[in-house]
Write a structure and sequence with these properties.
The protein is of the alpha/beta class. About 60% of the residues lie in helices and about 10% in strands. The strands form three sheets. An eight-stranded mixed beta sheet has the order 8-7-6-9-10-12-11-13, sandwiched between helices. The chain has a four-stranded antiparallel beta sheet with strand order 2-3-4-5. Helix 2 (about 45-70) runs parallel beside helix 4 (about 115-145). It is elongated, with a radius of gyration of 30 Å.
């Protein structure tokens, strides 16, 4: 009979081993999830399939190895072997990931059906990660068996489960906030790989090598009931996580730090719950009644967590008002929202899992079976709750269904007790009377035109009392409005008119659809527009009606797909590719500014093709912009920069490059502007060749100097994803200030733009146009918005009179009053639920 293994340094060492293993496991999960998203795409089917495949691998390992570990006299060797296999496969994946991803990309295709994409993504990730995830799924059963008391005493997994989960919390935070930004994905993987053999060696040093052969008992009838409960609690627990993250994305900034904080709080609550269970509840007394009570308490805790969701925006506003601005305060506010939604439910989840696992083992099942059933249920949750129930029922009804599921798992004898009746009554009241868990900012006098809950986001169109409609994703990210048609049209026409004869163009990102529709109004150009969210494609029809009247609809082909994956998968070649000004801080958007993506775009260009990447300077600090420019010029060394408009509030910078060096013949440009058979360029401020070429602000040498020393934004080193959220959480300067600083750092001369042999007079007048534009923008810096027209005219009169002096004789500099115009009324908004 082995000696009890309940105290002393070996016991403490086993807890440290579990913490280190949890750190590495969540580090791997974050890295592998990010890497998989780069080649599977950010479509909902792919993202949720990766999560499901990870849990599926854990379940497979627990089922396959759990019974063998339970019968083994040397579980420490099993644990060491599993840790070694995880580390070895982590090294293999560093080499295998790239060629495997290319094969999967071809299998999925350009624009796959959601079902096919989910199946291929799940199967490929499941198989690719299976050696590592299966080994991970066996580590906890192995450590439990190696440290178990002799068979006469009740066994509990709670201490090691809590320790493993605490290590996972540290792994999540360290990986997201420090390791990936400082080391990159590959080196972070290497750090996790280094932990595995250390854990293996330490286990052989501190765990008993021979614990004796276990006397296996056939599972009792009651074990089946407990295992079913474990299956469904795994399903409901991860379903709750998926839905809460989905709802909070409408209130938080939805950055890489947001998700890390939400996951860390979820894991921390589970760990504390397991520790509390071990401290006060693991003596085995009143086991049946305790299980029913925990299920009832969990249903009540989920209802309390839902209350935190309804109050989320109020909580965030209050905390930011109290704590002030700054990234620390903003992230702390998001952490508080996570605590409000997750703390109580996950605490009970941790206790319930520990309790049900102990019950299963007491009934004759092994811990591998208990863990396997729980993670098997968890693997189904992303598909069921993320893909099916959220769009079908909405987040509120889906969350109430989870509450009902927990109550249904209680024994019938408990259904008439307060622990079941009270949460059941509250859930029914909320189902009948509570407003949807949806957030839409509606201006005073405005109304919601449309609202749709999608798998990944909620998409709304809101119109104010001046009939200006705005398209928003998750209420946080504005994709454009009916008041931005001028600039949206320019973002389409500027790159198209720079090409001498485009026949097929690709727009990465649809937004309101105005830009792509404007381009499609040209009868000679076919337009493909790739948009990640199908709901955005539907909502865009509200904005494109006027353009569609010009015959754009038949030539505009919206494609619901991830832009990055589509570019890598397509076999088509495009004369012009225009990438929207994606919000760089939003989760996944930073991957659209990497050197790898820019190279894939270049490979998709036809001979003589042109690529324009728009960058939202109002959402980028200059350091992050330098990394984006550095990545662009690494692929397009002859690249140039243009401005979409002269706006001071929402400046948009464009990076233009091509398969070959770009120089423009003024005569060809003049013909393109004058002979346009689509929308009139003059309607968008492009009157002549000067207005078109006058949009340039930097040549190749100036861009290289501007980006000098900035780190490349790559798949391995996602610099933009790390840095961009900082200005989103706490902007340190105004967009107009960043625009002025940028223009002061850039320079351009006619030789950067026009072909050799261009008329000196044209070159002189073009340089004068640029000078006039810069003076106009500089003049706007000192203008302060005012509702008093006389006061505004007094501010702008003197600066504007200096602008035309250096301007060319022809070539009108478009001055739009909207660049300086104050809002017509106070920005008074109220919260309204969608109709």
């Amino acid at each position: 009979m082995p000696r009890p293994f309940t105290e002393g340094w070996r016991w403490r060492a086993s807890l440290v081993l579990m913490a280190a293993s949890g750190f590495a496991g969540l580090g791997y999960q974050i890295v592998w999830t990010q890497q998989a998203a780069l080649w599977l795409g950010h479509e909902s089917a792919a993202v949720l399939a990766v999560v499901a495949a990870f849990f599926g691998g854990l379940a497979a390992g627990a089922f396959a190895f759990g019974p063998r570990i339970e019968r083994s006299a040397r579980p420490a060797y099993w644990y060491a072997a599993c840790e070694g296999l995880v580390g070895l496969w982590g090294l293999v994946l560093l080499v295998l990931m790239a060629p495997f991803s290319a094969w999967v990309l071809g299998t999925i295709g350009e624009a796959p059906a959601p079902g096919w994409q989910w199946l291929v993504a799940f199967a490929s990730i499941f198989v690719l990660l299976l050696p590592a995830t299966a080994a991970m799924g066996a580590t906890l059963p192995a450590i439990e068996r190696a440290t178990a008391l002799h068979r006469g005493v009740r066994r509990s997994i709670a201490p090691h489960y809590a320790s493993n989960t605490i290590g996972a919390v540290v792994g999540v935070l360290a990986t997201a906030f420090w390791l990936i930004p400082e080391l990159g994905l590959a080196r972070t993987t290497m750090l996790c790989v280094a932990l595995n053999p250390l854990c293996a060696a330490a286990s052989l040093a501190c765990l008993p090598h021979d614990v004796g052969t276990a006397r296996t008992l056939p599972p009792a009838y009651g074990a089946r009931d407990v295992l079913v409960r474990l299956l469904f609690t795994g399903l409901l627990g991860i379903g709750y996580e998926v839905l809460v993250v989905r709802v909070l994305s409408e209130v938080t900034e939805d950055t890489v730090y947001t998700f890390a904080m939400l996951l860390a709080v979820y894991l921390a609550g589970s760990a504390i719950g397991a520790a509390v269970y071990q401290r006060w509840c693991a003596d085995g007394s009143r086991a049946e009644r305790l299980g029913d009570r925990l299920l009832g308490w969990l249903a009540a805790a989920c209802l309390i967590g839902m209350g935190g969701l309804w109050a989320a925006e109020w909580i965030k506003t209050f905390l930011l008002k109290e704590w002030g601005t700054g990234m620390t305060a903003a992230v702390a506010a998001e952490a508080t929202l996570a605590v409000a939604a997750f703390a109580l439910p996950t605490l009970v989840m941790g206790a319930l899992f520990s309790h049900l696992s102990a019950r299963a083992m007491a009934a004759g099942a092994n811990f591998g079976q208990a863990l396997g059933f729980n993670t098997l249920g968890a693997s189904a949750a992303p598909l069921l709750f993320g893909v099916v129930l959220t769009p079908l029922l909405g987040p509120k009804s889906a969350l109430l269904l989870i509450v009902a599921g927990y109550l249904a798992l209680t024994a019938r004898a408990a259904w008439l007790k307060p622990t079941v009746l009270v949460p059941a009554g509250v859930a029914l009241a909320l189902a009948a009377s509570a407003s949807p868990l949806a957030f839409v900012d509606v201006p005073e006098g405005g109304h919601v035109v449309s609202y749709e809950d999608g798998v990944m986001a909620a998409v709304s169109v809101v119109e104010d009392d001046e009939h200006v409609a705005r398209l928003r994703i998750d209420n946080r990210q504005q994709e454009g409005s009916s008041a931005t048609r001028f600039v949206d049209g320019r973002q389409a026409l500027l790159p198209l008119l720079l090409h001498p004869a485009p026949r097929r163009a690709l727009f990465l990102g649809l937004g309101t659809g105005v830009a792509a529709s404007t381009a499609a109004a040209d009868p000679h150009v076919e337009i493909d527009a790739v948009e990640l969210l199908p709901e955005v494609i539907t909502a865009s029809r509200h904005f494109t009606g006027a353009v569609a009247d010009h015959g754009a609809a038949p030539r505009l082909h919206p494609i619901a797909a991830d832009a990055r994956r589509y570019v890598r998968a397509t076999t088509r070649r495009y004369d012009v590719i225009v990438a929207d000004n994606f919000h760089p801080a939003r989760s996944g958007s930073g991957a659209l500014y990497t050197v790898e993506h820019f190279q894939a775009v270049k490979d998709s260009l036809a001979a003589g093709g042109l690529f324009c990447q728009w960058l939202p300077l109002h959402q980028l600090d200059l350091d992050t912009l330098r990394s984006s420019v550095q990545s662009f010029v690494a692929i397009y060394p002859d690249g140039r920069a243009i401005l979409a408009s002269n706006s001071l509030e929402t400046p948009v910078l464009g990076l233009v490059g091509g398969r070959t060096a770009l120089r423009f013949d003024p005569a060809v440009v003049r013909d393109r502007v004058n002979a346009s058979t689509g929308p009139r360029p003059a309607d968008f401020g492009i009157d002549d060749a000067f207005a078109l070429l006058g949009s340039f602000v930097a040549g190749p040498d100036a861009l290289v100097r501007f980006a000098a020393g900035a780190p490349l934004n790559s798949d391995d080193r996602p610099v933009v994803a790390d840095r961009a959220p900082r200005i989103t959480y706490a902007p340190e300067s105004l967009p107009r200030e960043r625009l002025t600083a940028l223009l002061n750092a850039l320079s351009i001369v006619p030789d950067d733009v026009v072909v050799p042999g261009t008329s000196p007079d044209f070159a002189r007048r073009l340089a004068a146009y640029w000078s006039a534009r810069d003076l106009f923008i500089a003049a706007g810096q000192s203008v302060r918005p005012s509702t008093n027209v006389v006061e505004m005219l007094a501010q702008v009169r003197a600066p504007l009179l200096t602008v035309p002096r250096p301007a060319p004789i022809s070539g009108r500099l478009t001055i739009r009053w909207s660049a300086w115009r104050p809002r017509s009324r106070a920005s008074t908004r109220r919260r309204r639920r969608p109709c």
